[in-house]
Amino acid sequence: AAAWPGTDSPFYRVEQALLSKGYDRFEGETLVAWLLRIKTYLPDPELTDRIMGVLALHYRYRFDPLGLPVDARERLIRETDTILSGIGSRTS
Predict the structure, then answer these.
(1) Cβ atoms of residues 52 and 42 within 8 Å
(2) What helix, strand, coil percent values describe the chain, rounded to 5?
């Protein structure tokens, strides 16, 4: 069976990092709803905006039939690394 496009998206690392920091996601909760719910608890208020931008790239990578151009894919990777650094700065 062929793998679904974008299952290797770096955004999944952001999701896992947030979950590991205790930002639980309700069953059936969309990523957007989850991020909006937890945004006031994130260590940096601008982090949510960055995450939403990366989420938009992630969705394009996963679901756009045309895929994601190389420059946008590189931005997805770069922004993911920046976000992961921000998430890591939170103390539990």
Answers:
(1) no
(2) 65, 0, 35
Would you say 59 and 12 are in contact if contact means Cβ atoms under 8 Å apart? no
Residues 54 and 14 sit within 8 Å (Cβ to Cβ): yes
> In one letter, which amino acid is 22?
G
Q: Which two tokens stand for residue 74?
A: 């590189």
Contact status, residue 51 vs residue 80, Cβ threshold 8 Å = no
Inter-residue contact 4 to 67 (CB < 8 Å): no
pLDDT in tens, 40-78: 888 787 888 999 999 999 999 999 988 899 999 999 999
Q: In this structure, how many other beta carbons lie within 10 angstroms of the beta carbon of residue 88? A: 10
